[in-house]
Amino acid sequence: MAIVIDLDVVMAQRKMGVKELAEKIDITMANLSILKNNKAKAVRFTTLDALCRELGCQPGDILKYVPDEEKDSDEEK
């Protein structure tokens, strides 16, 4: 997949943990961890809206397009 979720980076910049953010956006810690660890296959717009609201960011701060060949070379490192 060519879309990468950089939620962990944004959370670290805001010094916010999974438990705190999960409570603020009313999502389970397990589902937030799936997003944070880039394992999600989809993101609801309502979830993206809540993430941006609580983290004070734009969707582009969380989601990034990486061509498959670039992503593959990053994973080999």
Automatic annotation (TrEMBL):
Q: Which Pfam families does the record cross-reference, listed alphabetically? A: HTH_26
**What protein am I looking at?**
Helix-turn-helix transcriptional regulator
> Which residues does UniProt assign to the signal peptide?
none
Q: Which residues form the HTH cro/C1-type domain?
A: 13-62
What organism is recorded for this protein? Lachnoclostridium phocaeense
Cross-referenced Gene3D superfamilies: lambda repressor-like DNA-binding domains (1.10.260.40)
Molecular-function GO term, any one? DNA binding
